[in-house]
């Protein structure tokens, strides 16, 4: 689940995801094997986000993880969809939390991206765990957990039922923009790596990083906040760094040069 390295002769950092230094015609390939490729909502550049088609594509492309988003249906099922409404990514309308799981399953979550994906459905978290655990790492994002009281306990119980509360090699991770929710997840699942998401520069101070390190394992800022200095400071606090969302090769190479530990991308092959 790591990078397969290839050597190519290049004078520019930004022309290829393969990082090479050129001295007298000799190519020295840098070791990128430590960087995890996280398929954002699956390989969502190639298939409808948060569907089996996108997750299968991520597995096929050799990503290290799939990232997926979790909400709760009206009748209490945890479902995998990014938005709080179904309007953007399905042929339906309304809030996820006001629709039953059967109503959600009946929606077409693929046709918006092309006829080849017609009939793709909104998966449940149960289905995703059972279908992909052991095939690829899972990065589970809790969306607006404050809207769904008790969702942390529900996710923890799902993982415990499958003996996934003590994952090997960080095969399961959980993240959110809600820091209090992630503090709770660390208490519920002390052996599962926790990530904090942010797009705010306020959260990049040493004081903030020190606080995150008391309960989180990953600091996951939006790529516009990334610099080598920030990555070094996060590492100094014992935090790994995963950045999002990469949609072009230049951004991928900038993050690689900054020394991040994981790249969250719609296009896993752009990082490869």
Q: Specify the CATH architecture.
A: Alpha-Beta Barrel
The H/E string reads: EEEHEEHHEHEHEHEHEHEH
What's the mean pLDDT score?
90
In DSSP terms, counting alpha (H) and pi (I) runs of 4 or more, how many helices? 9
Shape: globular
Share of residues in strands = 15-25%
CATH H level, superfamily name: Phosphatidylinositol (PI) phosphodiesterase
Question: And the CATH topology?
Answer: TIM Barrel
Arrangement of strands in the largest sheet:
3-4-6-7-8-9-10-11
Task: Please explain how this structure is put together.
This protein is of the alpha/beta class and 272 residues long. It has a single domain, classed as Alpha-Beta Barrel (TIM Barrel), CATH 3.20.20. The protein is 27% helix and 20% strand. The chain is built from nine helices and eleven strands. The protein has helices at residues 52-60, 101-105, 125-132, 151-161, 179-188, 206-212, 228-236, 249-258, 268-271; strands spanning 20-23, 26-29, 36-40, 65-72, 78-80, 137-142, 172-176, 194-198, 218-221, 240-246, 262-265. The strands form two sheets. The protein has an eight-stranded parallel beta barrel, surrounded by five helices. Strand 6 (137-142), helix 4 and strand 7 form a beta-alpha-beta unit. The chain is globular, with a radius of gyration of 19 Å. The termini are close together.
Brief summary:
This protein has 272 residues and is an alpha/beta fold. Helices cover 27% and strands 20% of the residues. The chain has helices at 52-60, 101-105, 125-132, 151-161, 179-188, 206-212, 228-236, 249-258, 268-271, and strands at 20-23, 26-29, 36-40, 65-72, 78-80, 137-142, 172-176, 194-198, 218-221, 240-246, 262-265.
